[in-house]
Amino acid sequence: MWKFGSNEIMMFLLVIGGVFFVLSRILSISISNMCLNIIFILLFFIIIVIHGWKTLGAREALVFFLFASLIPLLYEYTEGWGFGGLVRCTCSYSNLLGPKFLGKVPYVIPLVWSISLYGTFTMTNIMFNRIRITHEFEEKASLQWFFKIVGMGIVTGLIMASLDLIIDPVMVEMGAWSWSVVGPYYGIPLWNYEGWIEISLETFVCYSVYLLLVKKSQIYIGGEKQSRYTLLVVVLYLASLIVYGMYAVEAQMTYVIPWAVMAMGLFASIVIIQFYRSYLKVGKGVSPSIR
Question: Going by C-beta distance under 8 Å and a sequence separation of 6 or more, which residues neighbour residue 232?
Fold first, then answer.
């Protein structure tokens, strides 16, 4: 009898989401893009929580989501450096995304940050062979380790920013938020992308230091079997491109799609190639490691 485990649940939710999205477009189901967007956010969050529980463990996953929610919320609410507070380049949210934290930042925004940051955190760890086949901890604190973690944090930020090449222009067009100044990238200020990198960097470094203190490593789903389900984060990353690509077409903003496809396609390809390179090494009894 087929066992319906957590991996199958993630796949089931992903398939259900895909079918629902396709049918909603083909059959013109009476549901707004914002409602559809929130449905996908919740669906993606459930998948990410299961994925994080499998690769980090329950406690470490909870700590990650706290970091990945609270750090962006602090930036968003205080209009911190990453969002141009010092150069009067800030964004204002409309009521389309629902209730707001202290009347300023929609509650769904930290949720989106935590989903995206977990996916890009894991993708970066795959790229740099930092995911283990067991929770056995091998990293040691040093100046070299810190600089490597900072570099990986910047890469995480670049992957995050690649998402926003399509998200921000489309969501501004849909009326979800607006910017106080008009920027060079289809109306989006470049300071916004610096903010994505800065927040991602801080989250990556803070959580990496936490893992160092508790002596815990992120592992592949399946541990020594190095299950391909680990790559579900890449599937969600590309699914976001498809969803917002459809929104861009409906909003007659197809000009933003090529930039997102090139950037996101590049990162997704690197992650997949690195995964299968390490997959072959593990298959030969070689454990990927960080030096």
Answer: 10, 11, 14, 47, 51
pLDDT one-digit tens code per residue, 210-256: 999 999 999 999 866 678 899 999 999 999 999 899 889 988 999 99
**DSSP-based helix, strand, coil % in the chain, nearest 5:** 70, 5, 25
Give the whole-angstrom CA distance, residue 40 versus residue 144. 40
List the domain boundaries for the chain: 6-283
Q: How are beta strands 105-106 and 91-93 bridged, if at all?
A: unpaired
Between CA 43 and CA 63 the distance in angstroms is 20
CA atoms within 13 A on the CB side of 91: 26
Q: Do β-strands 177-179 and 105-106 pair in parallel, antiparallel, or remain unpaired? A: unpaired
Q: Among 36, 23, 3, which Cα is nearest to 243's? A: 36
Q: What is the pTM of this model?
A: 0.89
Q: Would you call 98 helix, strand, or coil by DSSP?
A: coil
